[in-house]
Design a protein that fits this description.
The complex is a heterodimer of chains A (274) and B (255).
Chain A: H1 14-29, H2 32-57, H3 61-65, H4 69-96, H5 100-103, H6 110-140, H7 149-176, H8 183-186, H9 192-195, H10 206-213, H11 216-230, H12 235-266, H13 268-271
Chain B: E1 6-15, E2 18-28, E3 33-37, H1 44-52, E4 59-64, E5 67-68, H2 73-76, E6 80-83, H3 95-105, H4 111-121, H5 137-149, E7 155-159, H6 167-184, E8 187-191, H7 195-201, E9 204-209, E10 212-217, H8 219-226, H9 231-239, H10 245-249
Parallel strand pairs in B: 3-8, 3-9, 6-7, 7-8
Antiparallel strand pairs in B: 1-2, 1-4, 4-5, 9-10
The chains are: A mainly alpha (274), B alpha/beta (255).
Chain lengths: 274, 255
């Protein structure tokens, strides 16, 4: 009977991942305030810390040694935050539009949804933080791109950590409903003091330094300061951050898929968002 | 393949202490149109959600096209589709964008041509550039139906396909579904509260109450069994536990 030809079922499909990415690009294209919002906070934060830097360069020998340290810190922190938010918000968008019921009666597999979420997170982060980084060049005569290749290592580690947290948050929202959506906005900030974004980890109490060791982001920011202050790229920090990220990303995916299965048992895919 | 398109055996769904679907078994033959009827909370939506693989049964087996839906749903999902006025499409996307995204998800080949075909068939050409959220209920129903027909499904599950539609639009939708079924030989399974729709479209009726399948048959058989003039009266009899003697004798009405 079949007149319309469809692709044969496969274990995974870039086309299906692309379809979901396209759905969210349509959303961005259809609303310029959304695109503006992506760049707004990273740019405002960067400007704030840029002026603080200008003040501190004349009043702090530490900042004077590497005037871009605070601007780099704020931009890289936003990579982590936007990376997490990118995953969580794109998933929440499906819940708000009550679209999960249609999505998961299509051949879309849960891991393909995860792949689409992280792809959209990458796009959103590049728009948001990339835009702010470009604004910093004429405004403060500072380019984070001067960090060179280590910047790629920092970016990848931070965004992957953001994805892990984003998947965990999305799983919790799937399990506990939209009452848990606030987690998407504040959960990552609990890690900020321990991460050492704006100061060395050494100033933390010893027990908190031990906690910081288990955060990939703390190794990234320590590595960033090593590059900016000492012009040294610390491979040991990179290896530790990558190892931790592998574990956390795997955990994030497993937790999300586990909660997805729980949602299929509890019937939340059809009704969540109502 | 000559087996049933849908085979449900002893399907049970329990949510904590609540049994939403209780030991339900039925089969749906290829090319037939089957109605799943029952009052609110009878277990219709839960049954449909299990058929779609959105919900895992606590117990029992569900096969679609002979494939175990619980373990291998991705093998059959491209051959089926679903439409419900209670499950939205993204409101901020235009109709064309929504249909393109779902066409890609279903892997529809020659998607542009298929979109034009479906748009023409469902008379939504003028809506393609409008955002889904701006449409009226009737327009939304036609668009979600278009989404459900993109892959020309062999099995189409419909949850109250004409709910909240005016009589003219509802009649148009029913006629379209009948033409689609006759043209493609597709199997339709629909949950509905509209008894005239059921009498007109369906050749089998499954009556549910409190999670159990309490009676079944063609609309004519049910009318005769309950001694009623229309399906609405049959529906009320079953909802109020006034089961037909034949259903009692079969042990269905008591459950």
């Amino acid at each position: 009977m079949k007149a319309v030809r469809t692709a044969a079922p496969r274990l995974g499909s870039l086309r299906r991942i692309g379809a979901l990415v396209l759905r969210h690009l349509y959303l961005l294209r259809g609303s310029w305030p959304r695109v503006l919002e992506l760049m707004y906070w990273p740019t405002v934060q960067m400007i704030l810390w840029g002026f603080i830097t200008i003040f501190l360069v004349g009043n702090s020998s530490w900042v004077a040694q590497a005037s871009g340290v605070l601007i780099s810190a704020v931009l890289l922190w936003d990579v982590l935050f936007r990376g997490q938010l990118g995953v969580s918000l794109v998933f929440l968008e499906e819940l708000w539009s009550r679209n999960l019921g249609h999505l998961f009666v299509s051949p879309l597999r849960p891991w393909e949804l995860v792949a689409a979420l992280v792809t959209m997170s990458l796009i959103r982060t590049l728009i948001g933080v990339g835009g702010a980084a470009l604004v910093a060049i004429p405004l403060f005569d500072y380019s984070i791109f001067d960090i060179g290749l280590p910047l790629i290592a920092f970016f990848v580690n931070l965004i992957v950590m953001g994805w892990s947290i984003g998947l965990l948050v999305s799983g919790l929202v799937l399990r506990h409903g939209l009452g848990a959506e606030g987690l998407a906005w504040f959960v990552v900030f609990a890690l900020q003091p321990v991460t050492g974004v704006y100061y060395p980890i050494d100033i933390l109490p010893v027990w908190l330094q031990k906690v910081a060791f288990f955060l990939p982001s703390s190794h990234v920011f320590t590595g960033m300061r090593a590059v900016l202050f000492e012009q040294v790229f610390r491979v040991d920090l990179l290896v530790t951050a990558v190892a931790l990220n592998v574990v956390y990303l795997a955990l994030g995916i497993v937790i999300f898929l586990y909660y997805f299965r729980v949602a299929r048992i509890r019937g939340q895919l059809l009704h969540i968002g109502e | 393949m000559s087996g049933p398109v849908v085979a449900v055996r002893h399907a049970t769904k329990r949510f904590d202490d609540v049994v939403a679907v209780d030991d339900v078994s039925f089969e749906v033959a290829r090319g037939s149109t089957v109605a799943l009827l029952g009052g609110n909370g009878a277990g219709k939506t839960t049954t449909i959600a299990m058929l779609l693989g959105l919900l895992l049964p606590t117990r029992g087996e569900i096969e679609i096209f002979g494939v175990d839906m619980i373990r291998h749903r991705y093998r059959v999902l491209p051959r089926m589709n679903f439409s419900s006025p209670y499950v939205d499409l993204p409101k901020r996307l235009t109709v064309a964008e929504n249909l393109r995204v779902y066409g890609l998800l279903y892997g529809v080949r020659r998607l542009g041509a298929r979109l034009r075909e479906v748009a023409e068939a469902l008379d939504i050409g003028a809506l393609l550039k409008r955002r889904y959220g701006e449409l009226s209920s009737g327009q939304k129903t036609r668009v979600t139906l278009a989404k459900a027909l993109l892959n020309e499904p062999e099995l189409l599950l419909l949850d109250e396909p004409t709910a909240s539609l005016d009589p003219d639009t509802a009649d148009w939708v029913r006629s379209y579904l009948e033409r689609y079924r006759d043209r493609t030989g597709a199997t339709l399974l629909l949950a509905s509260h509209n008894m005239s729709e059921v009498e007109r479209m369906c050749d089998q009726v499954l009556m549910m109450r409190a999670g159990r399948l309490v009676d079944r048959g063609t609309p004519q058989e049910l009318l005769e069994r309950y001694g009623r003039k229309n399906m609405e009266e049959v529906f009320i009899d079953i909802a109020r536990e006034r089961f037909a003697p034949a259903a009692r004798a079969a042990g269905q009405g008591r459950k």
